[in-house]
Amino acid sequence: MFLNIASGSPVSSEASSTGKTGTNSNREIQLGVYFTVWTIYTLYFHPLCNYPGPKLAAITPLVHLLWDVQGKQHSTIKILHDKYGDIVRIAPNSLVYRAAPAWRDIYGHRKKGHLTFRKDPALYTPTPNGVNAIITANDKQHNRMRRLLTHAFSSKALGEQEGILHTYANMLIEKLKGLLGQEQSLVVDMTRWFNYATFDLIGDLAFGEPFGCLAESRYHWWVVIILDAVKASSYLKVFWFYPILLPLVVFLIPRHLMQKRTDSFNLSVEKVRRRLKSGTTRPDFTSYILRHSKDGKGLTPSEVDANAAVFVLAGSETTAALLSGCVYYLLRHRDKYLRLIREVRGVFGQASDINLSVIAKMPYLNAVLAETMRIYPPIPAMLPRIVPEGGAFIDGEYVPEGVSVSISLYSAFHSADNFLLPNAFFPERWLDSPESGRFMSDKKEAFQPFSYGPRNCLGQHLANAEMRLILTKILFNFDLKLEPESMGWSTQKSFSLWKRPPLMVQLNRAGSMEFNPLA
Hints:
Oligomer: single chain
Number of helices: 20
Mean pLDDT: 86
Largest sheet: 5 strands, mixed
Strand content: 5-15%
């Protein structure tokens, strides 16, 4: 027996049980009514109800988040675009585009008096110290950061940094030659070696010291965990949409992923502090940031920490991915590979002649790299923005304010509406010559691998120089052959960045294989 507090009369346990059952039933009914009303609203009355897309995705953002966590976002959205057209609704309040005009409408400079499209906070998780880096900052904060950081990535800075680029490109070549030794050939994982080189290089530019990957011929522990740290960020997006689940973070996200995310950030902070204490004036990112930070208007220590971590990941993993993809597609297309070999070895008589100014003007080298970025974009993910107050026209259609809009790079670059033979590797489409004529219908304006407008990639000139230099030196010094086990290498998952498997390649001394590339 229990006491009825309200009346002071006794109540039987059966009555109490019946009351609880009734309360639970009421809650279930209320939830059922809520989800029914919500479903009807999102499908038939929501401002985006006329946009095509999967019905379940229009009801809940969990569908889109599931694609992300599974590493299938890029391929799924490509399939949806092919099915529904250039604009697809992928969540209750989200649209994704692939047509070329959307780049200008979403990411381009806005007319005077028109508000900018801010980055969607739902899909840009902050750094572990809670401070925005340049990729997550908006409006005045972003403008200030970009103004301060631009100097570190200027043409002048790149000219001063060329020696550092050569140091690590040469170290990569010497390490591979040392492994080859007197052997006829050697099979190596190029994914691993490209990561060694790019992480060491960007580590030096960001922190004033490499990670020691090339010197020790193995991954630094920070490099090993960085991709898992990125994957953890994919899980964290769930809590923006469902903050009620935040107390369950320890159960819903693998603990080792969260720990790796914290550890990777802490190491970058440690390295930044060590670089700042050194006081050197070498031409790395830090020296430019300090040089142009005056009168208390520079980056705060926390902002330097946040941006340094971003620089290392964005400047290393993306370049290593591009180089890996480039070698894979070249070796799957022997005629393209031989043509590039002829160009590289025809321009340079000896390795010491290779320099940034010459390789920047080599037509087929740059066409190959452009085509690799199209067919295998280093960042295959979306770049979501929020439509500003008053709404905006995107790709010819009005979209109300508050909607999350984006372009899927992978889908846009693989669209038959944008490119002839979109799934085929044809560097010739990027040449300024008669042979590119068959690709006259290509909508080149849809190709924006470094994003577009005032928030395009700050480090694109450095990335281009880095990939040109490393690829040129590899092709000048070695003949390459793809191993059978890596024939299907391009089938990959992505978690904002590609999850790349080993790329097994046979290395031979230049000119020592059974064919003569220069014949």
